[in-house]
Recover the amino acids of this structure.
């Protein structure tokens, strides 16, 4: 996509459940996610990404475009606190999965309408998110759909300043029957 610089924060290791629903490979199992991702991105694109094998804790101020792929509302809120009304950030994209439900937000952090909308959707806590299985995922179509929507928003934003504020879809798995979907 022509991204010249990409920094990734994650303090996790690649687990068994990550392999079938992502581009992590069997050989990445139990290695640091950021290390495995650096190798995958380098192999696919030639880009050497900046990696931080830790949770983001205000280490560096955010700048540019921020893509959020976390599995808790607390982590989203912490990132949003750093991005909200930050003129150095042009766009925040937040992906969320809950069972078969996919949400992708694309928010301009200095646009009052976007801020009010996203404030509402990031305001609830762990207790409210648990019934919706925040972060529950497990099959490749969900991950690919999320990545596709992120890419679509990024390219549209960078090329024309247009983005989709809130995308929602019920993603069917290969085992769903017509009645289930």
């Amino acid at each position: 996509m022509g991204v010249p610089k990409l920094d990734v924060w994650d303090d996790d290791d690649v687990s068994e459940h990550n392999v079938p629903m992502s581009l992590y490979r069997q050989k990445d199992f139990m290695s640091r996610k950021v290390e495995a991702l650096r190798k995958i991105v380098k192999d696919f694109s030639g880009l050497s990404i900046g990696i931080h094998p830790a949770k983001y804790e205000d280490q560096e101020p955010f700048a540019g475009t921020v893509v959020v792929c976390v599995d808790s509302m607390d982590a989203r809120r912490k990132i949003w606190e750093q991005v909200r009304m930050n003129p150095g950030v042009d766009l925040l994209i937040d992906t969320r999965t809950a069972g078969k439900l996919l949400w992708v937000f694309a928010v301009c952090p200095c646009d009052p309408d976007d801020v009010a909308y996203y404030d509402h959707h990031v305001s609830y806590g762990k207790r409210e998110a648990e019934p919706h299985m925040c972060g529950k995922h497990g099959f490749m179509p969900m991950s690919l759909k999320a990545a596709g929507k992120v890419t679509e928003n990024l390219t549209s934003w960078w090329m024309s300043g247009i983005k989709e504020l809130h995308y929602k879809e019920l993603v069917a798995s290969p085992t769903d029957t017509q009645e289930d979907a």
Notes: Residues 177-181 have pLDDT under 50 and may be disordered. Residues 64-174 form one domain. The chain has two domains: 1-55, 64-174. DSSP finds five helices and six strands in the chain.
